[in-house]
């Protein structure tokens, strides 16, 4: 076949992770055939079982092995027999940091036919993107415990950011906001006045400038400095607590949100549930100049392992995000369109066991409607 060839590393991971990634791979293969490009897959059996049998979370050369690929597709990490934190930190966070995937891109999008817990809200209202900083903040693990086990013990975990980390994340978010809308199709949340001023999109910084007056002082200053390079993007600011409130009450107010690692982690679970839950929420850990890793936002759901009832759409949509990132925009859009057709016309629910179809059948439906 003609067309480009992309090498994809697949880490199925734990629980239902391998089942959902298998469906994603199936759809990706169909899309490659249809849109004339080639995919080569390499499988990596890392996760809870690997750890239990080898005592290691990852082989020493894991990063080197992955760097031979163009992108990574990840299922889910988390095993009931392994203490929480070991695999999450040892695999997921380790790879995000080692591969410098400094952006975690998480679209919050309600697809047609999907039930949202937000009364009266439609796909028109819930359609924004969260840009979560992905390699800094509280996640860097700066801190410690002293006098552990005594009545005087002290625990500290610091939110650490340098200007470079803040700036590259904010710049990425402005560029994304700019790309999402054009003069011809501006974000419909803009006022007439905004449009007269040439604005086409909005970027909201989600922070906590009223309490975390050091870290968010830096974020806010950098945000408004970078904003000057993007005259078409309207900069806005919202405290994290208020962001949660508006994500529920008025999600249509958001276009693109940029935020820190910890706040982004929290608000994207809220966002995911407003778009129908973990069965459909996809994300990408992105290094714009390097190797990126795409994953469903949800966990390994061990109790459903091997039953064929888990929803693979989040993994399928993560695969679509991966193709988009690789430059196969047409194929990516076709997968998303097909997924959106089946949520609107086929699936009864997004929840495991309630879709009206098996995991495998959902993958087939996406392919049939490509
Ligand atoms: C996520 C997860 C991870 C995170 C955990 C599993 C370490 O919750 O991808 O959102 O906190 O980033
Ligand atoms: Mn999370």
Identify the notable features of this structure and list them briefly.
370 residues; alpha/beta; Isopropylmalate Dehydrogenase; 10-stranded mixed sheet; two-stranded antiparallel sheet; 39% helix; globular; binds 3-isopropylmalic acid; binds manganese (II) ion
Question: What can you tell me about this protein's structure?
Answer:
The chain is α/β, with parallel strands linked by helices. It folds into two domains: 183 residues, Isopropylmalate Dehydrogenase (3-Layer(aba) Sandwich), CATH 3.40.718; 160 residues, 3-Layer(aba) Sandwich (Isopropylmalate Dehydrogenase). Helix content is 39%, strand content 19%. It has twelve helices and twelve strands. The strands form two sheets. A ten-stranded mixed beta sheet has the order 2-1-3-12-11-4-5-10-8-9, with helices on both faces. Helix 1 packs across helix 10, helix 5 packs across helix 7 and helix 10 runs antiparallel to helix 11. It binds 3-isopropylmalic acid and manganese (II) ion. The site of manganese (II) ion (MN) has 2 residues, from helix 9.
Task: Give the topology.
Layout: E1 5-13, H1 17-34, E2 38-43, H2 48-54, H3 62-66, E3 71-76, H4 86-98, E4 103-109, E5 127-133, E6 143-146, E7 154-157, H5 163-180, H6 192-196, E8 201-207, H7 215-227, E9 233-239, H8 240-249, E10 256-259, H9 261-274, E11 282-286, E12 292-296, H10 313-326, H11 329-345, H12 359-368
Helix pairs in contact: 1-10, 1-11, 1-12, 5-7, 8-9, 10-11, 11-12
This protein binds 3-isopropylmalic acid and manganese (II) ion.
Manganese (II) ion is lined by residues 265, 269.
């Amino acid at each position: 076949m003609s067309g480009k060839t992309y090498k994809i590393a697949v880490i199925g991971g734990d629980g239902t992770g391998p089942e959902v990634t298998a469906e994603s791979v199936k759809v990706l293969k169909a899309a490659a055939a249809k849109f004339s490009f080639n995919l080569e897959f390499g499988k990596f059996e890392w996760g809870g079982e690997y750890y239990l049998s080898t005592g290691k979370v990852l082989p020493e050369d894991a990063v080197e092995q992955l760097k031979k690929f163009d992108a990574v597709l990840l299922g889910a990490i988390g095993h009931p027999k392994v203490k929480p934190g070991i695999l999450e930190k040892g695999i997921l966070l380790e790879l995000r940091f080692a591969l410098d995937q400094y952006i975690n891109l998480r679209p919050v999008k309600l697809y047609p036919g999907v039930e949202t817990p937000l009364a009266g809200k439609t796909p028109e209202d819930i359609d924004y993107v969260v840009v979560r900083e992905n390699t800094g903040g509280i996640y860097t693990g700066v801190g410690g415990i002293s006098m552990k086990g005594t009545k005087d013990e002290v625990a500290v975990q610091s939110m650490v950011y340098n200007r470079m980390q803040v700036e590259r994340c904010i710049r990425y978010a402005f560029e994304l906001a700019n790309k999402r809308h054009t003069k011809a199709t501006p974000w419909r949340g803009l006022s007439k006045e905004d449009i007269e001023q040439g604005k086409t999109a909005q970027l909201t910084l989600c922070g906590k400038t009223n309490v975390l007056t050091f870290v968010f002082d830096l974020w806010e200053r950098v945000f408004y400095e970078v904003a000057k390079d993007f005259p078409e993007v309207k900069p806005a600011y919202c405290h994290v607590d208020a962001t949660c409130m508006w994500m529920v009450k008025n999600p249509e107010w958001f276009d693109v949100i940029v935020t820190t690692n910890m706040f982004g982690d929290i608000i994207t679970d809220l966002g995911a549930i407003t778009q129908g839950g973990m069965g459909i929420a996809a994300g990408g850990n992105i290094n714009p100049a390097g190797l990126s890793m795409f994953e469903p936002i949800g966990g390994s759901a061990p109790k459903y392992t091997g039953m064929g009832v888990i929803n693979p759409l989040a993994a399928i949509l993560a695969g679509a995000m991966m193709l988009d990132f690789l430059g196969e925009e047409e194929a990516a859009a076709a997968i998303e369109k097909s997924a959106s057709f089946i949520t609107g016309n086929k699936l009864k629910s997004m929840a495991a066991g309630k879709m009206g179809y098996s995991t495998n059948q959902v993958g087939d439906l996406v392919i049939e409607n490509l």
